[in-house]
Structure formats: structure tokens, C-alpha cells
Design a protein that fits this description.
Order of helices and strands of chain A: HHHHEEEEEEEEHEEHHHHHHHHHH
Helix content of chain A: 55-70%
Distance between the termini of chain A: 50 Å
Oligomer: homodimer
Structural class of chain A: alpha+beta
Strand content of chain A: 5-15%
Largest sheet of chain A: 5 strands, mixed, barrel
Largest interface: A-B, 61 and 61 residues
Shape of chain A: globular
Chain lengths: 481, 481
């Protein structure tokens, strides 16, 4: 990591940014995910490589909060929440990428603990000098465990043990990556000597199930990285286009550059609203007093997470590429800085479940769950969101096509597999329109916003409806065809 | 450049690859651009950074062939064609990017020659150690020349003068770029001391006009870089997907991966055929005995060059990104090699006229030239190409929409400016379909091809018609709307 990161991390934790959404019981701030998600966008937008470190700690906190013993919570949670220690997620192995069930790392029982041995790859912040200890959350297979996904358990493997001795875990190398250069991605080796000491979380063979606990929030956070990079790209490109002159005119005034800037603005805004909408639904699903409200919001989260993770990260990358185009030749020069967005944003389409895996989750699971009940909840919710919008009729027309296309997919799983990505894009673009329609509506009726702000919001929404939303019909056609 | 490049370049020229399309009068091989373009794809696909060096020499050869004096031709052409020397194009300055007319570099007459002073940026292979001399083709402004584009002249500024002395031109620095790392991109300074010696090409104030001589071939070559990177990406991703297993199955068998591989294959194939079709039209426009055939082919070249340059380079980048996605996590690691395609391919959308400039050239100029006559020639030609295809009816339907949309654009230049890029994409995707329809047709009727090859060709064409061609309707809608 850059020299400045260690100090920056200290400021980050001292100022409380690490503990925003976590339980006050362990000295977290107990703020809603809605607030935490808005904060996350700013950190990822400022520096995605830096922001990855607390993001991985977040995953560890969630796993331990949900499944750790009281003793584990007491010992690890406070230090992870305060940021005194950081966490990692050790899932991937050379032969276990999308197929996490193929994990081969071994865990052999040894008294109260286990001895872990094996190799993990792509471990974000697997090694660094920010903190005195690093807490690895490791998936491994116990002796005589069932084959495949069912035989995997979850372990805590700290870099240093509670007696201060070094555990048998080390980073073998750091990857040379396309982007997020400042984020150390390690190959981690466990048990080169006696076996790394690991502490079982919860029960044996429940590791993958536990992982799902933190998956929604992790995927939300990665989608927000997409929003953050789209936003940062939009801001950089807009500033440059206003300053750079050709033919004695700021290039921002050329229609084709305008088109690019508006595309960035509309996509960043729509995906921001969607991310926050999901964050709010997570809060309601977790905490609302009414069981029915919790269930409804849980359905919305389940179905929107894969859509948001994939579509927002696709857009994060595409908008970064558009920004490079606005910069032209200087955009290709690394010192300019915008090329970094292109490189950084690309990983978000791959990690935390590739966007293809998200599409499989959507069509193969989410839209068929409860006989399509989750999808029905989503549709009612979307209708409710845009019912007072100026675009109600337009969105109704689109909704009808989307419902019909979804029926095809629900009834034919072979067709579903072939159309998974187009289907996800179709839904993502439509839902982006609903989010903008709702927020334009809200801006118009707020009363407290400047005329300029409202006019801008309406203009961006109109641009989206005319220029981006019609892509839905293309996807409808190729799925149906 | 890498150590190996100097030696590789020597082999390249000794084996005659530098001289393929040039005049036998100056020891070129006199082969058609059709052949040369097929050769170019292989070089760019093997290493885009290396292939850029002869590409810039090609531009110099064309400029001097068309506008140089006999003496200049005798002195420079043979050495540039043999590859003993290389050439550069010194157009861009910090304030003269897309607006080439803003060139500020000065040329002051000094006896038989001129003294050139100024700074040029983004000069590909502006300095290197492959050859003993480098011939810079420089745009500069003579004293009392008219302002803007009309006052620019073209000069030859060699690194070493004919008496062996060093000319007053040097590389100030090399850029640190997103990609094509092995291609040195220099900031060139002319006339830090006495003024660099420059020799006028042709007449004063004709510099930009001369540049247009080599522009079609240069833009064709950049489009071919797009094809080359799409092809290389497709090959690498296909090989990886056949080897990499998850859930005990090669990932190439998963429907979503299949979709990505077919998208790469269909786009690479369609753009290859289009590039070669344009190359053939250039040959016919230059050399056919019949004036009418020459004119018709010239019209086809004029209108297809911006479409091909922009659309094929967009696809080169997009297909490289798809290939990274097929590789997943390892695709993000630089050692894997596929991320290089993503980085390298990105520049082709920017240089040799950004893709936005291509779209402006298409809608603001090419489709209105001769009262839309060029467009009419293109349409007749396309109809003729697909008239025996199995997709005739389908393509007729699309053609009708395209003609109607073109009328809107031809009659309303403000609408044209706002829709330039969508219009170009619309045309590019449709013409890609025509190219595949024609080549499927040719494959079926060849008689000499294996059943497997023909079945493959038909399958790819069918995939394009069903999954990619319908994008045209989206662009039609947003242009008309």
C-alpha cells in the first residue's frame, strides 16, 4: 500500500468511519445501512483500493455477529468494529472460484481448535501494515465431511494468536493486477508448518450457509462501488469538458459530448437511488416491528441484490470508459487519473460473484422462489413507486413487457439459462427508470429544493426515459425470440 | 521498447512485411490493400504496440507517394518502404487535438528549406532505436499563412539530415499510458536551438488537404486493430473456457459463457469481413479501369470508413472486456495477458480521430454529400450483397428502418449532431449483419469447405441476427424519438 495509507487508515478509524452500521453492543454506531451505504459511496469514490479494507472487515463483523459464540464476539467484534484489527474473507482457491463448494483447504480437529492447511487466492488485504492483527475468515473442509458445498465449515484464523505468537498463516505473494493497485491482493498459505490454528464459527458443515448472511450486504457494497466509480467518472469528465476548448468552444457544448455526460449522470443517479433503496429495504427487513413489512422488504432485497450488483458494476465500468472518451488522448495517459477508474471499476464485475453468477442467481433462483412470489412483490412495489410519476403510462407499458418476458423465463429454465444476462440487464435498466421517476417526482414536490436542482433532475430523468430506457425493448425481443 | 523489439523489427523488414502494399517503383511489393489489411490484422493481433511502428511509416509513405517531389520520393520513399527508416505523424499539439486547424508550430522559410519550431504531443514511435533515422511528417504554420485549417503546411523533418548531422528535433519525454506500453509515445520538441530543418511537401497551406490522402487507409488500419483485438480476445477466452472447469464442467458449456464466446466470435468475424470489404473497395477505387466502378467504390469507402473505424474499435474494446469476464478473477491479473487487450484496445477508440469525430464525419458530411448520393450507393450495394441470403427478408425490414432514419438525419442537422453516435452504431450493427449474411451465403455455396466450417459459419450468423442485430431498433427509436 502507499505510504500514506497507514496514516489515513488511522484517521479513518479514529473518526469513526469504520463502525457506522454496527451494533452499539460492541461499540458500533448502530446507524442504518441506508446511512452507511451513502457513506460507502464516498469512500469508494475517493479511493476504491483504500475502501476495500473496511469493506472486508465489514464482512467479518457480520459473520461473527450472526454466528460467532459470545466469547468470539467479545474477543473479536470490538476490535474489528473499532478498526483496531481488520478482517479478510478467505473463500477462493485455484480450483474453487464460482464453484465455492470445491474448496479443498483442510481443517483437522486438535483439542478446542482446528489445524487449517491449504492455499487461498485473491485475498483482499490478506497482508498489510495498518493494524497489529488481521482476522482471516476461512472456509475449509473438516475430516469426513460430506463432499461438495455441504461439507464446508467456517473458521476464524487470526494472524497473531491471543498469546501474541504468530499463527501459521502467511502471504506468499501479492498479485499484479489491472487495477486497485493500492489494494494488496494476496495468495495466502495456511499450515506450512504445524497447521494454522483455527476456531470454528458456529457448527461444522454450515460454512457456506453462514456466508450467505453477509452476502447481500457485500454485494450491495460492490454495487455501490459501481455507483461510486460512475459518479467520480462523471464529475471528472464534466469538469474537464467545461474547461477543455476546441474550435474556441468548451467541448461540453458539443452535442456528442453532452450525450456522454448526460449518460454518465443519468446512470450514476439512477443506480445511486437503487442502491439506497435496497439499503433501506435491508434496514426494514431487519428491524421493522411488523412481520409483513419485514417479509416484503426481504423479498425486495433478495430479488434486487443480484440486479444491482451486476448492473451497477457494469455501468461503473462503462461510465468510466465514457469518461476516458470525453478526455480523449489525455484520458489514455495515466497521470490524468481517469484511466484508473477504468482499471479499478473492472474488478467489481468479477468479484463477490461474477455478474454472470448474479444473473444465474436471478433467473435460476430468485424469480422462481415461492412460485414467483418475490417477483410479484417487486412488481407491486415498483408500480407503487411510480404511480404518481409523470412517466406512469410509459412505465406501465414497459412493465407489461417485463412481466410477459418474466413468465417466459419462469416457465422455461433452459431459456432462462441462455437469457440470464439479457434478462438481468432488462430488469436493471427498467428499475433504474423507476428510481429516477420516483426521485424526479420527489424533487418536484419537495418544495425546499432550488429551481435549478429540480430542473436538472427532471432533465436527467427525461434523458434516461428517451435514450436509455428503450434498451429494455431490445432485451425483451432477444429473450422472447 | 522491449529489448526484443529491435531484433524483431529487423526480421520484420528483412522478410518483407513492411513493403506489402507499396509501389514496386520504390521497391514495394505492389500488393492490394485487401492483402495488406489481412496481414495487418495478424500483426496487430500478435502485438498492437509493435505493429504501430510500421503503421506510422505507412502514413508517411502514402503522404510522400501522393505529394512529395521526385527528389523527395527518391530519397525517402525507398528507405521508408524497405523499413530502413521509419516515419511518424506529427499533428497533435496540446491545444490542437480534434481541432487540428489550431496547430501553432511555426515554419520560417530559410533558403531551400524551412526552420520548424514548436511542440508536438502523442507522437507514436517519435523516438526509438530500431533504425538509424526517423522521418517526421510535421504540420506547421508558415509566416503570414491564413488562420485556422487553411494555413497549415506539411513538412518532412528527419532526425538526421542527409549530411549525417543531427537535426534540431528531440523527444522530451515518453508518456506513461493505460496500454500499448511497448509503443513509445513521445512529446517531440522542434527547434529548441536553431530551428529544425524541414522540407516542404507539395505547396504551402495544403497540409491538411494532403493529410486526407492517407486518412482513409489510416482509419481502416485502426479499425483493423479493433478486429485484431476482438479476434485475439475471442481466441484466448475460447481456449481458457474449454480448459477451465467448475462444477466438473468446462465453463465453455455454461450458457452464459457460450453467449459471451459467440458474441465475440460474431463481432470479430463481421468486422473482419467489413474491413476487408473496405480494403477491396479502396483497391477498386484506386485501380479499376472503369471510371464508374472507381466512383462507386470511392463512395463506399468514404461512407464506410468512419463507420468501420468507430464501430470496430468500440467492439475491439468491448470484446476484450467480455474476454476478461470469461477469465473471471485470473483475467484481472496482468500475468494472464487478457487484461492487456483491454488496455491496448482502448486507445483505438481515441486516436486517428476519436469515435465521436467519426460520427460527426458520418452524419455531418458523408451522408449529406452529393445530396445523399453516397448513402444511396451504399444502400444499393448492401442490398446487392444480401440479395441471395437466407436473411434477405429480415435485412430488407431493417434496411427500410435505416433508410427512414437516415432521412431524418439528412434533413435535420441539429438532430444529426445529437444522434451522431447512435446513428453510427445503428449503421455499423446493420452492416455487420450484411457482411455475415454474405459470408454465410458464400460459405454455403463454396463447395470446397468442410461441413463443420460451414455449420459454424451459419450458426454464428444466426446468433448475430437473433441477438445482436435487434440493437438496431433501439438506435432507430432513440434517433427518431
Amino acid at each position: 500500500t502507499p505510504d500514506e495509507f497507514k496514516e489515513t487508515y488511522q484517521e479513518f478509524v479514529i473518526n469513526g468511519w469504520n463502525s457506522v452500521p454496527f451494533s452499539p453492543e460492541y461499540e458500533g454506531q448502530g446507524l442504518p445501512w441506508l446511512v452507511s451505504s451513502a457513506v460507502s459511496e464516498m469512500w469508494s469514490g475517493a479511493n476504491m483500493a483504500f475502501a476495500l479494507c473496511p469493506l472486508l472487515t465489514q464482512g467479518s463483523v457480520e459473520l461473527l455477529s450472526a454466528h460467532g459464540s459470545d466469547q468470539q464476539k467479545e474477543f473479536y467484534l470490538k476490535k474489528l468494529i473499532s478498526g483496531e484489527w481488520t478482517g479478510t474473507m478467505c473463500l477462493t482457491e485455484p480450483n474453487a472460484g464460482s464453484d465455492v463448494g470445491a474448496v479443498a483447504t483442510k481443517a483437522i480437529k486438535d483439542g478446542d481448535c482446528y489445524r487449517i492447511s491449504g492455499q487461498k487466492i485473491f485475498i483482499t488485504y490478506g497482508e498489510h501494515d495498518f493494524t497489529e492483527n488481521i482476522v482471516h475468515m476461512v472456509l475449509a473442509r473438516t475430516e469426513d465431511a460430506p463432499k461438495g458445498a455441504k461439507g464446508i465449515s467456517l473458521f476464524i484464523v487470526p494472524k497473531f494468536l491471543s498469546d501474541g505468537s504468530r499463527n501459521d498463516v502467511k502471504a506468499l505473494s501479492l498479485e499484479h493486477k489491472l487495477g486497485i493497485h493500492a489494494s494488496p491482493t494476496a495468495v495466502m498459505s495456511f499450515g506450512d508448518e504445524d497447521g494454522a490454528v483455527g476456531y470454528l464459527v458456529g457448527e461444522e458443515s454450515q460454512g457456506l450457509k453462514y456466508m450467505f448472511t453477509m452476502m447481500n450486504n457485500a454485494r450491495l457494497a460492490v454495487g455501490i462501488e459501481g455507483v461510486a466509480l460512475a459518479e467520480n467518472s462523471c464529475q471528472q469528465a464534466t469538469e474537464y469538458a467545461q474547461e477543455r476548448r476546441q474550435w474556441d468552444t468548451p467541448i461540453a457544448e458539443f452535442p456528442d459530448v453532452k450525450r456522454m455526460l448526460l449518460t454518465m449522470r443519468a446512470n450514476a443517479d439512477s443506480m445511486r437511488v437503487l442502491g439506497l433503496y435496497i439499503a433501506k429495504a435491508i434496514d426494514l427487513a431487519n428491524n421493522h416491528a411488523d412481520e409483513e413489512v419485514r417479509q416484503k422488504n426481504n423479498a425486495i432485497v433478495q430479488i434486487l441484490i443480484p440486479v444491482f450488483k451486476a448492473h451497477a458494476t457494469d455501468l461503473g465500468f462503462e461510465m468510466s470508459s465514457l469518461a476516458v472518451q470525453v478526455f480523449g488522448g489525455v484520458g489514455y495517459i495515466e497521470e490524468t487519473g481517469i484511466a484508473q477508474n477504468l482499471r479499478d471499476s473492472r474488478i467489481a464485475m468479477i468479484y463477490e460473484g461474477t455478474n454472470g453468477i448474479q444473473a444465474m442467481d436471478l433467473v435460476g433462483r430468485k424469480i422462481t422462489l415461492e412460485n414467483g412470489g418475490l417477483f410479484d412483490v417487486l412488481i407491486l412495489d415498483m408500480q407503487n413507486l411510480y404511480k404518481n410519476s409523470a412517466y406512469k403510462d410509459l412505465l406501465d407499458e414497459y412493465l407489461e413487457k417485463i412481466v410477459a418476458t418474466t413468465k417466459i423465463i419462469q416457465q422455461n429454465q433452459e431459456q432462462a439459462a441462455h437469457s440470464s444476462t439479457p434478462y438481468l440487464k432488462m430488469l436493471g435498466i427498467f428499475i433504474g427508470a423507476v428510481m429516477l421517476a420516483k426521485s424526479a417526482d420527489a424533487a418536484k414536490n419537495a418544495g425546499s429544493l432550488s429551481e435549478e436542482f429540480v430542473a436538472n433532475k427532471l432533465g436527467i430523468t427525461e434523458f434516461y426515459m428517451k435514450n436509455l430506457l428503450p434498451q429494455v425493448k431490445y432485451f425483451v425481443e432477444i429473450i422472447g425470440g
